[in-house]
Amino acid sequence: MANTETVKGTSLWKDAWNRLLKNKLAVFGLIVLSVMVVAVIIGPSIIYWTNGFTADGIPADGDLIKSFPPSLQHPMGTDEAGRDLLARVLQGGRISLTVGIISTLVSLVIGVSYGAIAGYLGGRIDNLMMRIVDIIYSVPYLLMVVVLLNVFSGQNTPEWIKSLSSIFGGAGNQGLNQIFMLFFALGLISWLTMARVVRGQILSLKNQEFVMAARATGVSTFGIIFKHLVPNTLGPVIVYATLTVPSVMLSEAFLSFLGLGVQAPFASWGSLAADGVKNIGIFPWQTIFPGVTMALTLFSLNFVGDGLRDALDPQTRKF
Amino acid sequence: MLSFIIRRLLIIIPMALLVITLTWGLIRLAPGTFYSTEKKLPPAIEANIKKKYGLDQPIYKQYLLMLGNVTCRTKSADEEVRGGVQFSIGSLNFKCFDFGDSLKYPDRSVNQIISDHLPYSATIGILAYLLALALGLTAGIIAALKQNSAFDYGSMTFAMLGLSVPNFVLGPILVSVFSLTLYIFPPARFGGFMSLVLPVITLSAIYMAYIARLTRAGMLEVMRSDYIRTARAKGLDEKTVLLKHGIRGGIIPVLSFTGPALAALLAGTVVVERVFAIPGLGNMFVQSIQNRDEPLTLGIVAFLSIMIMVFNLVVDISYGFLDPRIRYE
User: Fold this and answer.
1) pLDDT for B138-157, tens place per residue?
2) Contacts 24+ apart (CB under 8 A), B34-38
3) Is B175 on the interface with A (CB under 8 A)?
4) Within its chain, how far is the Cα of A202 from the centroid?
5) Chain B residues inside the 8 Å CB shell of A289
6) Are β-strands B85-89 and B92-96 bridged in parallel, bridged antiparallel, or unpaired?
């Protein structure tokens, strides 16, 4: 009779985490991403320090300013200015990954609140809000980004963007300002799908008993939306956010490739690959290494996103 | 059904007008003009340019003029029309869809530029889309039917790869392998079937991957559903079950993707056009934005957004043929 053993319950999140760990591809993705993040944070300094380069990475000796193929000293070769390409790729990774993360955060904040408000209020407001989303969808996003980047550049750069740049040690640096603008421009266009996902979730949740109970006890509309409904949509939101990161990173690379995004001396994987493409016949490593690094990261992010979807929502498990 | 189509067709008009208005607003918000150069223009010349293009008028008049150019407006007898449709009612002459002249290339009308450059983008885009559909659907269906087989894992990993390699990396890699090393396909330029192979593969890779994944997921869900079990239970052979019932339901998610894909194809062609030196519309569009060539940008946006909306309507209509449970009201 005396059963002293207590069964320890596992939470939803713990369950999901365990399921995620069983997914080999997702674990592979997580490991690659962790290694990438660490490498990107500390890598460039170590490489420059061991190779004895100047601060901007361009060798002091003029004879070294040319493209060298991969060697032991430069595992990925060098770019046209003689900079170690591995270091450039890692530096580029800082910007590419940050673009992905910050833009996704911006799209999370806007998309989740917008979708939740539209879904909960319903009726005409919902209709109006979702038609606005439809219309923004049909404006070419390239145009939106180009205009946003142009409108808020130069003297028109908002103060808070400038202060962000100065936190990162580049007060008044136009290139850095442009990068921060890119974060927000991409975030501002990538919230649309998030809003749709969240609205759909809220629609199916808002008639449930716990919402009625909250309303009966006098919780405000704001409180119901953000305290009771939004936390219940976290699963799909996390999954979708994980999949937004690679798509935003692709957009950034695409814009940098067109010469609209990150510009020298700053680098992102997209801008490095775009620089390399000009000489792909002669110096193929200048395209292949940034491109493959980016592809590997996107590959891992997609796998983690897929794994999370399967883990958080076992019913819709497709694999 | 008919009233649904008519209603949707009518909605396209205000939607397109809104898109054009928004685009126009965005262009006007952006600093710089088509005539601004490094050197500052003398005020007299600037005033002249402004007068010629109606930029000295109040903003609402400029807006109405723009709107008239993009849609329909009356024209004076001596006005030259270089494209679009014209007709007259009584003594009034109307002209429609004449987007005016490009500001960057003053000797070419926007209609002319669109009809010159569209065929290149359309050829590559349509071929890429057909290739993506053919291979993506096949791979997705086989992967779903042989779930957890080697083919399933192989094709889905390959699809994930397709989603992760940016097309501006894929294109140059294909060029350096197949053109510069193996000498099979020409590296650039547009002409003949051989020159189309690499651009079409580059453009279709990501859609192929997406379609394969969507098809697989859709098929897996459908093949487990009750109506498929019913079809099997009433003694249909596996082929009929799959072809007549399974695929119809399974590719609905793919269908929903085709609408956004058309819009995304525009962005994709820009890269392919750059990499393979193809004079398509996508590149023209990016340039028009950078040049602040307002009539050209608006013309392309108007043309493409209407195309996208019509295409979305076609997609919505075809839902009904694929899934009899979907009703239009």
Assistant:
1) 888 888 888 778 888 888 88
2) B34/B103, B34/B104, B34/B291, B34/B292, B34/B293, B34/B294, B35/B103, B36/B292
3) yes
4) 24
5) none
6) antiparallel
Write down the ipTM of this complex: 0.71
Q: Do A147 and B15 touch (CB under 8 A)?
A: no
CB count within 10 Å of CB A26 equals: 23
Note whether B166 contacts A291, CB cutoff 8 Å. Answer: yes
Nearest CA in chain A to B148: A319
Predicted pLDDT at A88: 78
Strands B72-74 and B92-96: antiparallel
Residue B86 has φ and ψ, to the nearest 5°, of -135, 150
Cα distance between residue B152 and residue B146, in whole Å: 6
Specify the pLDDT at position B194: 74
Helix axes A141-151, B2-29, angle to 10 degrees: 20
Chain-chain contact of A280 with B172 (C-beta, under 8 angstroms): yes
pLDDT tens per residue across all 319 residues of chain A:
555 666 666 666 777 777 777 777 778 888 888 888 888 777 766 666 555 555 555 665 666 666 666 666 666 667 776 677 777 778 778 888 888 888 888 888 888 889 888 888 877 888 888 878 877 777 767 667 776 776 666 666 666 666 766 666 555 566 677 777 777 778 777 888 888 888 888 877 777 888 888 888 888 888 888 877 877 777 778 777 877 888 888 888 888 877 777 776 777 888 887 777 777 667 777 777 788 888 888 888 888 877 777 777 655 444 4
Helices (H), chain B: 2-29, 43-52, 59-70, 110-145, 150-164, 167-174, 192-223, 226-233, 238-240, 247-250, 252-276, 281-290, 294-322
Tell me if B30 and A147 make a contact (CB, 8 A cut-off). Answer: yes
Rounded Cα distance, A142 and B27, in Å: 12
Residues of chain B in contact with residue A274, where contact means CB-CB under 8 angstroms, are 168
Could you give the C-alpha distances from A228 to A5, A224, A240, A248, in angstroms and in order?
A: 34, 5, 20, 29
pLDDT on residue A317:
46
What does the H/E/C string look like for chain A? CCCCCCCCCCCHHHHHHHHHHHCHHHHHHHHHHHHHHHHHHHHHHHHHHHHCCCCCCCCCCHHHCCCCCCCCCCCCCECCCCCEHHHHHHHHHHHHHHHHHHHHHHHHHHHHHHHHHHHHHCHHHHHHHHHHHHHHHHCCHHHHHHHHHHHCCHHHCCHHHHHHHHHCCCCCCHHHHHHHHHHHHHHHHCHHHHHHHHHHHHHHHCCCHHHHHHHHCCCCHHHHHHHHHHHHHHHHHHHHHHHHHHHHHHHHHHHHHCCCCCCCCCCCHHHHHHHHHCCCCCCCHHHHHHHHHHHHHHHHHHHHHHHHHHHHCHHHCCC
